[in-house]
Amino acid sequence: MSDPFVVVGADAAGLSAASKFRREAPDRDVIAYEKGRWISYAYCGMPYFIAGYVDRMSDLLSLSPGEVDEREIDLRRGHEVVAVDPDAKRVTVETTEGDRFDRAYGDLLVATGARATTGPFDVRGVDGAFTLHNMDAAAAIDAYVAEPDAYDPERADVSAVDRERADRNAAMPAPETVAVVGGGYVGVEVAEALTERGLDVHVFQRSGHLLPPFGETVGGRVEDALEAEGVAVHTDSPVEALVGDDRIEAVDVDGDRISFDMAVVGVGIRPNTELLDGTGVELGSGGAIRVDDRGRTSLPDVYAAGDCATARHAVTGDPDWIPLGLTANRAGRAIGATVAGDPTPVGHIAGTAAVKAFDAEAARVGLLDHEAAAEAGFDPVSETVTAGSRSGYYPGAAETDVTLVADRDTGRLLGGSIVGTDRAAVRIDTLATAVEADMTVAEVERLDLAYAPPFSPVWDPVLVAAKVLNGTLDD
Amino acid sequence: MSDPFVVVGADAAGLSAASKFRREAPDRDVIAYEKGRWISYAYCGMPYFIAGYVDRMSDLLSLSPGEVDEREIDLRRGHEVVAVDPDAKRVTVETTEGDRFDRAYGDLLVATGARATTGPFDVRGVDGAFTLHNMDAAAAIDAYVAEPDAYDPERADVSAVDRERADRNAAMPAPETVAVVGGGYVGVEVAEALTERGLDVHVFQRSGHLLPPFGETVGGRVEDALEAEGVAVHTDSPVEALVGDDRIEAVDVDGDRISFDMAVVGVGIRPNTELLDGTGVELGSGGAIRVDDRGRTSLPDVYAAGDCATARHAVTGDPDWIPLGLTANRAGRAIGATVAGDPTPVGHIAGTAAVKAFDAEAARVGLLDHEAAAEAGFDPVSETVTAGSRSGYYPGAAETDVTLVADRDTGRLLGGSIVGTDRAAVRIDTLATAVEADMTVAEVERLDLAYAPPFSPVWDPVLVAAKVLNGTLDD
Q: Is B308 a catalytic residue?
């Protein structure tokens, strides 16, 4: 009997790998070590829990420990892998009970995820200041924004929850105003969520637009959508400091001090790679663990997947770090199959992403930024069009903005964005498919997309954009 | 100065060609002959006018004669081209005023469209029996279903409308029950429209399911959607005869005579090719005019486009006849460019189509039917899955059924269908793009589609289907 498949981290990538491996190699052992108490939760659902769209925190769990057990995966919560010895093929584990032991592995998957960065801001020990990067934070925010007498502890109905932290936050006076520091996904989603909870929300974005990876057109419309619901959006407004000793009192922005009784910092995340410090493992883009098309790191029999690992970009062909949920699930599943003896590619990434801001839906794919496209060796040309989401006469037709970016020499589609209020976000999958198929804009223009008045005009917004960009490329 | 570009038929294909030609070749003449009074209307919008979702018939006009004039296209309504002499490069024209003349052409586009067939049923001269294939029929149906004292003639606010026919129908007692004969697009859309108008609607479908080109899964769910709103759906129920001398009284179905005071027959359409009878032009699939990748017929300098012409199918590579709006617009536009001196492909078709039935959205693409796939030389394998349209915890997540068909030997995606109530139809464009890119199911499974809880679960329904079908292909 060979040594077990050891998985570090029991979230999307780790448990996808363990589950697939268990099905494909029923006779080999698989152990999943998780340093905390939470497993397999829907990170992306936390803002919707805070908003109140999702009633119970337990709804956000993809798999319970019991279900993992039923899959015959040896899950060890409260077990932190603190060292890897790739030569001896052994990990060192510390438990929350204070035990420490070594464990040999046949294959190892590092799926340690990422964590929220706070930039220059220290949110620890400051009441009312949060990041949103785990379920305990979501529970604490939910508790903090509730009036003490209206707090419903039943919402955070998962035994793993840090109840003491939630209760402490619930006991504080409810905030009235919140500074959301950073206008990325988390910032936009939290702005909506806390508006729904009745707060006066201000979003501070360092650069000129929200959601920089989505481009200016999307950023502008998302700003409009937030402002239409009462959110104050401050662009070109770098926050310099959070102010407050025990409890948040204000933020300093551009020389001004603005009072707030809550702050949520969403300025980025970074990959958790410390476990492999000193092993000589190769890192790549964004400081993530560099892997090949099978998810293998530069260390023998050591794989990495999910938010701590790179993946190959479909447009540039280079390893890139764009941590997203599907990437983690897919890579984990592929590695589970590979380790079980069925070599499976982890797949490319195209940076496909979508975000909601009240009734606005925004999405992006591929290379949108001209500078990034030029760095990758392309000569980017782009056009933005506004087109109807349905036939003009059909009720509910809504203006949909589509931006497409292509390479001037080859006409290849490099990326695009879509924003609107009617079925805008799912339309990005058409572009994602075209990007992954290396289509030219001329080929996109000739795609036989569905036309039916309630869902799309004769020329879908994607086709309108392709037609216009193709005209520019022909000039 | 060369002879003009003559266009026969001033609807989607004809006016797209004339408009593009005019822009690209401003110094050459273009004449568009239209035998009737209507031009460039949104055929697909007629059911929604009847339903009352669209207030005014004029909303369905894409271009008014005045706008065509502004484009400097020489539009002649009431001019029927009755003969083509391809050797002399000349057409013979008859006007509604009784004039008859010949006109030389440099290039000729036949864009004569298609017409509703009625099978064994004669709806002419029978009050209350209709087909729905032009705006006069839509106006007549709208008038017929209105109570005489509630009829609003302002709805049919286009001068071209056959007012006498509309007024005559308006004066008749309003019907209470309608037999919709045929359960294709028109049948399904008319069933919804007339339910909205308060009628007791029965749909009779010859075969075992509605919407045969969409496959059984879609047919079944569309039947459910119609029945949930009170429509009686009768499958395996071929109508044998319409009964009634002056006014419709009943239909004969399977030996039974069932009373109705209205009937709408939607049993198919056929291409209008009679103009080229005797010219020796090659016909193709469905009796449509066979054209090449530039829209050229077998006659020199004679093009055909739209519902009267074939187009090359992206999966089979063969000319096929699937008359749809985008195909007509795209081919017309391409031919306009080609005739102007810029050779442009008319593009492939993938049979991409979508239809709405109350809250159900259905769509299809490519080869779905196993028999058709086998005839085209493939070994078809298919799977159908039911998956969520959003993350399970997100409000509004709806069951979405996806069917994928692939070729066993190569794994190539041949076609698919999607049906559901939440953003189901537009998802077909992902599959259309994959079909046109000749992707395998394994490649579809690895697509980096957008994940965001309000719009899609981690594994989009399309990815779930690809995963399951890929598993079957691997066995």
A: no
